[in-house]
UniProtKB/TrEMBL annotation:
Protein name: Glycosyl hydrolase
SUPFAM superfamilies: Six-hairpin glycosidases
Domain of life: Bacteria
An individual GO BP term: carbohydrate metabolic process
Length: 481
């Protein structure tokens, strides 16, 4: 396993060293040289910030005060909510000289299209009378769509075209100095659309929908169409010859063979691990959702783009048909459930992984309602030991991932479980788990050992913090999205 890298410090001295326990496995797993290299890149980027985030932090702190009024949350959970909300704005946002902004994933000096969308979604639940928070979110969205124009197959981007990267041995059909990592992930193209759509709906602002946005949407749709026919039309390949199977694609970097299904091929999962089979069901379900958003956006702001709108509509229908034809399997215990991956040739992968979009997260990404029968069957499977990435230990039980060692439960998985639950007792138990599994940091992590939460990965994982905060908002009746 190659862990997502980590750095002890965020924006200046924001992340206190005494908060970061030496039980984190990050430095041990990656080695001193990589750990220090990433911190140096982070420091260099922070020096280029056009301004600090003090004013934004004050606005968020005031909003948190309002949100937490008259709640029954414990003092610990209130403290965690405040710290996790502030963590993203104060430690990962780098405002630029132009009208865009860069958003660290946290402990890695790169901006993931997926993570940056997930990090900011929670903030659209807040009122912003000053408009300054919404300005910052809009600036990140502009950067996301400019990145898509640069290279839609890149999952994580650099602050500048400086050639920084996670691995210098990577091979792909295109070299791009903006690419921190060029693992093509279908969901990475969905998250910016989701954030832009929610931004429009919550703020009523329309300034995002300009020529650059339209050009990026056309590029995104082009990739969707190509990757529906991956074997025949796609030039993409990715090879990282480091001996770690999940870090590279087989078949000379092309992935395992697939047949046509109408769905869109993906090389990698939301965990950045390679897909076993190329049609990742949760990502395709997310694509159906955001294609619906694009139908609405194109219809409202680009009325002359009739051909584009027709293609969006056609692809959406084809993907949904593929999900229904190839993505549902009969399980002997749970009945009809969604597969995690299929290849269109008769093979399928029955599992679930924490990374969003996951099968557990389908109502969260707005693909279906919580009471949908197939979803409920799938949810019962996902949250059982029949799913090989669901773990139970002395301190916790929950969804994990092949991206982390066996026996590790993810805070993100616990939050998504809560966000997709209508059971008050289940949610109360999940809140209690958050109180007792943060290793005394008042922050969430990637994975923690189910037998000992003081042993964990990723000291600074902003997306996980944000999803935890969404769960808190749901529980106090203040979640809008």
């Amino acid at each position: 396993m190659v862990p997502r890298c980590s750095s002890n410090e965020g924006n200046g001295e924001i992340l206190d060293n005494d908060v970061l326990k030496n039980t984190s496995l990050d430095k041990e797993l990656m080695g001193d040289d990589t750990y220090l290299r990433l911190r140096q890149i982070t420091d260099n980027i922070l020096k280029q910030a056009a301004k600090d985030n003090t004013e934004l932090a004050q606005l968020i702190d005031e909003s948190v005060n309002q949100v937490l009024q008259n709640t029954n949350l414990s003092e610990k959970l209130q403290r965690m909510f405040r710290k996790c909300m502030l963590n993203t704005i104060t430690t990962t946002l780098v405002q630029k000289e132009d009208d865009s902004a860069f958003l660290f994933t946290g402990d890695i000096p790169a901006m993931w299209l997926r993570d940056s969308g997930g990090q900011l979604r929670v903030f659209l639940n807040l009122e912003d009378p000053s408009g300054k928070l919404y300005d910052a979110i809009g600036a990140v969205i502009r950067q996301q769509f400019r990145y898509i124009l640069l290279d839609p197959y890149t999952n994580a981007f650099n602050f500048a075209a400086d050639g920084n990267c996670w691995s210098s041995i990577d091979r792909s059909e295109r070299q791009n100095p903006w690419s921190w990592e060029r693992k093509y992930e279908l969901d990475s193209l969905c998250f910016p659309v989701e954030l832009a759509y929610f931004y429009w709906k919550q703020t009523k602002r329309t300034d995002l929908f300009d020529g650059d946005f339209l050009a990026a949407v056309k590029e995104l749709i082009r990739v969707f169409r190509v990757e529906q026919h991956h074997e025949e039309q796609s030039e993409y390949f990715f090879i990282r010859d480091n001996g770690i199977e999940q870090d590279t694609l087989p078949n000379e970097g092309r992935g395992t063979k697939v047949g046509y299904t109408g769905m869109i091929w993906s090389g990698f999962r939301p965990s950045d691990d390679a897909c076993e089979y190329g049609y990742l069901l949760p990502a395709n379900m997310f694509a159906v959702v955001i294609l619906g958003y694009l139908q609405e956006i194109v219809g409202a702001f680009y009325p002359n783009e009739e051909e584009l709108l027709a293609m969006i509509t056609e692809i959406r229908a084809e993907v949904q048909a593929g999900i229904e034809k190839f993505g549902i399997v009969e399980h002997p215990t749970y009945g009809d459930i969604y597969a995690y991956e299929v290849d269109g040739l008769g093979n399928y992968n029955i599992m679930d992984d924490t990374g969003v979009p996951s099968l557990l997260s389908l109502p969260y990404i707005k693909y279906c309602e919580m009471d949908d029968p197939i979803y409920q069957n799938t949810r019962r499977f996902s949250l059982s030991t029949d799913n090989r990435y669901y773990f139970e230990g002395k301190a916790a039980k929950g969804l994990g991932s092949p991206h982390t060692p066996p026996g590790y439960v993810w805070h993100m998985g616990l939050a998504i479980q809560g966000l997709t639950s209508t059971d008050a007792n289940e949610c109360e138990a999940l809140l209690a788990l958050f109180e007792t599994t943060d290793a005394g940091t008042d922050l969430t992590h990637e994975g923690f050992l189910a037998d000992d939460p003081n042993v964990y990965t990723r000291e600074w994982f902003s997306w996980s913090n944000s999803i935890f905060c969404e769960f808190i908002l749901k529980e106090i009746g203040k979640l809008k999205l």
